[in-house]
Amino acid sequence: MTDTAAVRAQVARFQQSFTDLRSAVHRRIVGQQDVVDGVLVALFAGGHVLLEGVPGIGKTVLVKTLGEALHLQKSRIQFTPDLMPADVLGTMVLEEGDGGRAVRFQPGPIHANLLLADEINRATPKTQSALLEAMQEQQATVGGQTRKLPQPFVVLATQNPVEQEGTYPLPEAQLDRFLFKLLVGYPREEEYTQILERTTGGQEPAVPAVASGDDVLAMRQLVREVPVPEPARVLITRLVMATQPKSRYATDRVNRYVMLGSSPRGAQALALAAKVAALRDGRFAVSGDDVKAMAIPALRHRLLLNFEGLGDGLTPDELLRELLERSRTLEIGAA
Question: Across residues 22-51, what is the average pLDDT?
Fold first, then answer.
């Protein structure tokens, strides 16, 4: 088998794995194609996802369904204001036995492959910060000892953007650790019939397990090997710089309304997501279209608007769409 044939076979296997996983999730989830694809892209890119939407539109069900479609250890944390870091990470407990007393580590729910952090913005900043090390370094430190988390490790967090009473907005440092922020909207009118059939009938649709942890890790390794040609790399760099006020690529509206733009971590997220998009579409190289398709979910949570922008009702998505509309001026050869 030639190298070219081997690469094509790997790309085909990735496409099949992505399609199988998407089909398994949609056996229970109706619609939300962009959201489901976004979660799968982040999964294969090795990142975490923040799902934002009003209650009752299937955010938690989506995460549970993905856990069933993946043969992985999963856990759930319902974040509340009284939740403590030890409730997330685990704690050292003193046990008495025939041999006397001994200290044993009791793992917390974070020690799993797939963690559902439900209503993450209801926890205090102290508890939210307990996730920072786990999300970035894939490890947890308790009692002076650092323990590696099972691989793959993915945090899928949900939050309600409307209800603000009893919530604690996520700090920028925590938001930056999510590869994607996905907005979950209301279903379309024609989708309600299927939703009612699947959720109010006598039997819930079964979701088959179509992938294992080893499958996910193998696909992640393949993603890392996908090349990013110079035009795509330049576009990634300039798109990220365009979100930074006073940079040479920033627009007048970015300079006026943005307090803080994307960090280099945004460029990393955009590159990895574009690699997954290329493989999903059957290609072994990133194109400019892949970059543009992944830009908004990868960057929307990395733009911090100033008071004027918030007062004018502006959203990061609007600014990012403007940047994408003028993306030709950011490509190689542009000033």
Answer: 87
